[in-house]
Amino acid sequence: MNAPRRVPPEAPARRGWCPSLARPMPTGDGLLARIHPPLGRLTPDRARAVAAGARRYGNGHIDVTARANLQVRGVTDATRCGLADALAAVGLGDVRADGGPQRLTLTTPLAGLEAGLVDVPALAHTIEAIGLAVPRLPPKTLVAVEAASPGIRLGSAEADIHLVASTEELTLHLAGDETWWQVPGADRSTVVAAALRLLAESGQRRMRDLRVDARADLGSLGLRPATPPVEASAPRPGLQLLSDARVALLVEAPFGRCTADALDILADAADALGPETFRLTPTRGFLLVAPDRQAADAARQILADAGFLTRDDDPRGAIAACPGAPACASGSTPTLTDAARLAEAFRPFAARGLRAHVSGCPKGCAHPAAADLTLVGRNGDYDVVLEGRPDALPAMRLPFEAALERVRSADSGASLAQIFSERPSGPPTS
Ligand code: SF4
Q1: Domain region containing 167
Q2: CA 360 to centroid of ligand 1, rounded, Å
């Protein structure tokens, strides 16, 4: 085992590129083209078109993003137009060419399936139309939309505007504010449009960066302070009985990635379950709707065999990982392979609710926020960050095998601080 070395962090890589089909982003494994399925919904045929496009025009690898979009990797300058044309032909093309957000809204996976709640997909559809009419809307603008139920499930941190709707009222939160606001019933569209215009005209990229005096413009719209909704946990992989006796099956793509072959298997499974479209989820997965428990169990087994996470105790669910090397030029470590090996060793810690992140570099694409344990690739080794963001000061630097061995051999009750203390652990490597 190798002795730790204290090392300073480096500045994270540049953020900000928002790829689309027309504007794919260069990465280590070629161009990355992002697909924005309308309202996060897919039909089996559209999913197969993505899989076919990934095989023909990319390298067969597909990402599922935390905003419930898909990314085809390994696209080239010679294939990018073919991919864009093929996906536009099935209704998955870009929707705007002015640099604005290709998909503005994010909804909970169960939106529209919950009995007695407001029609969230219809509301999201309206907001998408409002957003398309706002010029100069920053590309990363996000409006989270969910129904008022026992607790909100979409985190507020990433959304510029967070809407929680019931049949009677709409409450709204702007990133950077402490207050939630109640929107007068007749003025829902007016207020959402005003908030989007406010951001577009501010010149800022995110709502959280708006000055307090700029937000004051919304005061004339008759908003009243509202009680902040309680946060609830996001749905986990597994089965959920719906009020009409159907069963929702939520699965996750391991570390947010799947192959074209796995997406085809998912499309076939969705096809076999019936006519309901299936959904992408903000947990980097998919939600399918089965007519009954037996059908859901059968689909769950097929998807588990294809490598998807289908149970909430799968330790891979406690670990985030970016593509790393060789897929991304900024990475020097095989993050996905390392994350898969770390997952099994991390199982007792995952059972305690701890979360880990294996990041190819300090940019932290897969999870820019803090995790209990973050391994940050650097020159083939990993910086070890405890309870910090990927760009935080690391406690030490270790080769992956040494870090893995510390987790694997630790007492299941040990703290991560104990596991990654500066204790002597063998001859130094340098
Ligand atoms: S975090 Fe990972 S995917 Fe993002 S730039 Fe770094 S190596 Fe690449």
Answers
A1: 111-226
A2: 5
